[in-house]
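Q: Structure tokens for this one, please.
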Amino acid sequence: MKIIISGAYAIGTYLARLLSRNQEEITVIDDDEERLARIGTDYDLLTLCGSASSVKTLREANAGDADLFIAVTPDDNANINSCVLAHALHARKTVAKIDDSEYMEPDIRQFYKELGVDELIYPEMLAARDIINGLRMSWVRQRWDVHNGALVMLGIKLRESCEILNRPLKELCGPDDPYHVVAIKRKDETIIPGGNDELKCYDLAYFMTTKQYIPYIRKIVGKEHYVDVKNVMIMGGGATAVRAVQTMPEYMNTKIFEVDPDRCDELNQLLNDQALVINADPRDMGVLTDEGIYNTQAFVSLTGNAETNILACLAAKRMGVRKTVAMVESMGYASMAESLDIGTIINKKAIAASRIYQLMLDADVMNVTFLLSANADVAEFIPKPDSKVTRKAVKDLGLPQGMTIGGLVRDGEGMLVSGNTQIQAGDDVVVFCHNVNMKKIEKFFN
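A: Here is the predicted structure, written as tokens:
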């Protein structure tokens, strides 16, 4: 597959890293030679210095032969313009990153689709969705729903109170048990577990289950004492905070701390009483105390500074807040935040790249998510008739090492998968993989 990426910034660089694992033919266009030099030495790809809004540059990059053209510069107009031009040159599919919610309105999305922009990616909206999913369950690091909760994946940090530690998974996750452990992050190691693997204290374990058994999972991992989130404090009033508040469940009460008084006025107009906006610096412990930090169940730090977000969440944890969420754009800082036990880590470039990554797959893929903490991918595949995955029971498929099938949805009903499960065409199958070429997995479903 030939892929052209316009913009060697954060998302483009991360996306190049993600796609280079699959040995695709990748060309990165940027008008800054230094950015191109950095990305060119790190990954196996071609670079081209120039503007993707130039027809000459696009022709030089052979955009007409591109299977996927991705525009992820900081300039919305440049991204849309370059996608329109690439489409006119007969690129097969185009994707543009945008930073304005107006573009996501259905009629406007359709307008740009008719112009040749097949997909619009709005990182703030994607990040807000992940934040809300994290806040809905204070005892869970990450939640991922399949078919409106027919299947649920829960990423949970295990503590001493977990009652299923130090036992082989084959004793815990049999065909009749209501959950499977599909991935484990242990210190710097990611494990796609087998029957002889065990859960250890401080593991980050990923459980696949169905909605009715969520209370049971909560009990066996020892998290029943975690209170549900009703009061939320958000540090930083940027675009991601606005999107998160606008999609917040009605039962959650939210306070936003913003140091810029002019931005506070803008927030009051944008949010229309959906949150209490406070002009103050929440790094001041006195301010947090006055505003009720000890009666707050969740603290979300969304400033543009990763160090500030990490330190703020550490401080909130020391003041008794169970659920903390930090926006951390640096991958190096993300690893550090995980080791410090910060809580849920939000990385917009990884979230956006996961969504774009889904678009390059040929199989019928409903969703792809990169599990940042575990350095693993989870995807929903729909098998085609007579595809390899439908011909034998799961245990006889010869799945590659580092891949496991966590569950499936059939006729709207979630089911866990065992070795004897026979997958059918049209099932929605949830796959976990670590260090496996997604194209290799895709062949099982085509």
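A few notes: The longest strand covers residues 179-186. The first helix runs from residue 10 to 20.
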